[in-house]
Write a structure and sequence with these properties.
Blueprint: H1 3-13, H2 21-26, E1 34-38, H3 47-54, E2 61-64, H4 72-79, H5 81-90, E3 94-99, H6 109-118, E4 124-127, H7 137-150, H8 152-161, E5 164-168, H9 178-187, E6 194-198, H10 207-217, E7 221-226, H11 239-242, H12 255-263, E8 269-272, H13 287-304
Parallel strand pairs: 1-2, 1-8, 2-3, 3-4, 4-5, 5-6, 6-7, 7-8
Length: 305
């Protein structure tokens, strides 16, 4: 124990308190978030204008979103791969994630092949599940195992390209309830290329419950959406209310969630995220305000480590 920690422990001992192992361990920064910036936060702004903002948020990676949530995958297609690669190199940004809900989970091969050409490292492909909904118990488990079986051709391409497929737990989806996440983790235990995009937004807004769930399914989690439900995003509302989806703004306590991510040694991508209304518009009026909002929530998360 160094001198500072000895003094701290001694002072607390005099009051009958101790420093928790979590606080003592986190103080040496053994854990850090691997941030990526979702282009959807910037709506339809030019990808050329977004890339210089990435480093300002403490990130090195961008997540490209297509319509209707953004226009950036389409922008990249229009400019061509070589031009996009030059832009990435100019701003020292890497393609880390491609969000592909519109393609569906069974049509990802083309995107993975493209991503492997653009990125120096494996890219995470985020999408939703497919299958029967509103199932429980053994019927739910059986459907999830069947879904994973149907994913085998995509998993094969992921192996060849070095990509990872992350299925988001989403409302009105096969992968939605806490039990469905547990069964999905069981079904993918031996498949490192397929896992979960853990989205607190779509789970009961109970930080302690979510933290316990993270500990149960740990290795399955490949991607983390730092987002909460807040006041929802299905209708027009003041930006201050809309921002309640952001970490630190709404009621969800992220502390037990962050503690759980630390406990499982989570190394996947973390994205500070929210949905604007309507979809596809920037979350704030200016690019500087958007970056500032991301940094506000990043500061909140960092203080929890």
């Amino acid at each position: 124990m160094d001198r500072r920690n000895f003094i701290q422990q001694a002072a607390l001992a005099s009051t009958g308190l101790t420093v928790s192992p979590f606080n003592a361990w986190s103080e040496d920064r053994s854990f850090s978030f691997n941030y990526a910036v979702p282009s959807a936060m910037y709506g339809d702004m030019p990808v050329r204008a977004i890339l210089p903002e990435i480093s300002k948020t403490g990130a090195k990676y961008i997540d490209l979103w297509p319509k209707p949530h953004g226009t950036h995958r389409e922008q990249v297609k229009a400019m061509g791969d070589d031009a996009f690669i030059r832009l990435l190199e100019e701003h020292e940004v890497k393609l880390g994630i491609s969000t592909c809900y519109k393609l569906g989970p069974f049509n990802l091969a083309g995107e993975m092949n493209w991503a492997s050409k653009v990125a120096e490292q494996g890219v995470t492909i985020v999408c939703g599940a497919a299958g029967k909904k509103n199932l429980k118990g053994e019927a739910l488990k059986k459907e999830l195992h069947a879904f994973v079986e149907k994913m085998k051709p995509q998993i094969s391409v992921a192996e060849k390209t070095g990509c990872t497929i992350a299925i988001e737990n989403h409302s009105n989806s096969l992968v939605m309830s806490p039990d469905s996440l547990r069964y999905f983790a069981e079904a993918t235990a031996d498949i490192p290329q397929l896992g979960l995009s853990f989205a607190p937004h779509h789970l009961p807004q109970d930080g302690a419950m979510q933290g316990q769930l993270i500990r149960e399914i740990g290795p399955c989690i490949k991607h983390f959406y730092a987002q909460q439900y807040g006041n929802g995003s299905k209708h027009k509302q003041a930006w201050e209310t809309e921002m309640l989806q952001m970490p630190g703004r709404g009621k969800l306590d992220f502390k037990p969630i962050v503690e759980a991510l630390i406990s499982i040694h989570f190394t996947g991508f973390t994205e500070i995220f929210m949905h604007p209304f309507p979809r596809g518009v920037p979350i704030r009026n200016t690019i500087e305000e958007i970056t500032a909002e991301i940094n506000w929530s990043r500061d909140y998360l960092e203080k929890l480590i």
